[in-house]
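Worked example
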Amino acid sequence: MRLHPLSLVLALGACNDDWTAKGDGPSTIQNGDADTDTDTDADADADADSDTDTDTDTDTDTEPDPDDIDDDGDGYSENQGDCDDANPDIHPGAEELCDGIDNDCDGTSDADFDRDGDGTADCEDGCPILVDAYAAAGGDGSHTRPFQLVQDGIDASVPRGCFEVWVEEGIYYENIDFIGYAITVTGIRGPEITTIDGGGIAAVATFSSAEDRSSVLTGFTLTNGGGDRGAGVNILDSGPTITGNIITGNATTSLPGIGGGVLSFNGDPLIEDNEISGNDACYAGPEDGCDGGGLMLRGGAPEVIGNQILDNTAGDGGGIWLARSNALVLHNLIDGNLADDEDAVTAGQGGGINVAIGEDGCLILNNIVTNNSATTHGGGISVYEYSSTAGEATIENNVIAYNTVIETSNGGGILVNQYTAPIVQNNAIYGNTGPGAWLNAASYGGVFAHNDVYGNSSAYAGARGSQTGSNGNLAVDPAFTAASNDGDWTNDDFHLRAGSGLINTGLSTRTDPDGTRSDIGAYGGPYGSW
C-alpha cells in the first residue's frame, strides 16, 4: 500500500495505542495487542485506506524531439549528425566542395576534398580539372571556378600536368577532340544526366591523333552527332577506351554515311559496357553504302565487349559492320537493329552483324543476336564477302534468335555467301523468320559444326543443304530458361535449363568455365561466364 504524507502521519500516531492504554496507566501487552477491550467491532485504529492509485500519467502526447526530424529531407536529422538541417546538400556523407562549407559534417571544410587521391586537396592543386555547365563564364577549371565547356577542360589538362577532367551534370553543346592527350574525361554524375550534344554537325567525340587505351571517355550520353562518318564517336588510327556511355540518337548527315554510333577506322579501341542505341548511318533514309548503324569497324583490332547495341539502322550492318578487321566482338546484346539498303542486288545485309570482308583474327564470340531484321541477306548475321582472299572469321557460341529476313529467303538467322569461308560453330540458331542457316557451297571451305538449328521457318537453305546430323550439328529444342518471340529482349534468358540437349554437346576441343565439355549457345565455351 502506497502511503501519502497525511496517511503516514496518521499511521505513526496510531502506533502509540500499541504501547499505552489511554487513561489506564502502564499497560501489559496481551498477545502483542495493546487493545484489551472485549468488543468485537473492528479496531478503530485499523488503517482503512485502500488507495491503490499508482499515479499513472495519462498524457498521450507523442510529439518527437524536434532534433529527430529531418527538416530538409536529405535522410539525416540533427541528432543523426546533420550540421545544417535546412540545406539538403549538407549532411553526413555529402560530397565536400570547394566552398568553405563543411558539406559532409565531419568538422572540416574543403581540406578533405581530394577526389583524385593525390594527397593534396583539390581546392589547392586544381586537379582534377572541373567542368560545370552551370558555372559562371570565365572559369579556369578549378573547383571554385570551373570551365563551362568540356573541350576547355581537355585543352588545359596536359599543359597543367593534370590527366583527369571531371564533368558535372548538365548538357554540353559542343564537339570534343582528345587531341592526342592520354587523359580520362569523366561524367562524374553518370550518363543519364550528363550529355554532350553534337548539334547535328559533326562527331560528338573525335580521336584522330594516335590516342591509345589511356585516353578514356566515360560517363556521358553522346547524342545528336552528325557529319559523314562516326557521328557519335569517330576513331581514326587510334585506340581509346570508350566505356560506360550512352551513345544514342546520332546520324550521319552526308555521304558516305558510315558509322552512325561509332566508327573505328584502322583503330584498336576498347568499346566496353556502353549502350549504343537508336543511331542511323543513313542520313536521308535507306541509301546505298550507308554502313554500320551502331558501329562500323574497318581494319585494326578493336575490342567490342559487353555492350547493348539496340535499334540502330543502316543499309548494311544495322548493329555492326565489319571489314578487314581483327575485331573481338564478345558478350554483347545485339537486338532490334535493321539493315535496309536500296541496292538492287545486295540490299540490306546483316541486320545484327554484317561481316563484309573477314579476317582470321575476327572473333564473334558469346553474343546474343536477337530481333534484328535485314531486307535481303542475313537477318541476324551476314557473312557476305566479295574477295576470294578474305580471311576466316570465327562465329562461335552465340545465340542467334528471332531475327528476320524480310524480302527473300537468304538466311533469317545466319547467311554465309560468296567466297567466304568462316568458322561457324557452337551456335544456337533458333526461332528465326526465314531459313535458320543459308550456306554457300562446301567447295568454298569453312566450318559449320556443332550448331543447333531449330524452330526456324525452315532449317537450311543454300548450296550446302541440310547439315543436321553431320559435324555435330543438331536440331533439338534448346530448352532456354525463358525465351519468347515478342520483340522484348528483357523477357528473355538464354541460359540452358537442366536437361537441355545443348549441354556438353559442343566442340570436344572447347571447355566451359567449369571444365566440362562446351555447351552450345552464348553461355558455353571458354567465355561462357557473363
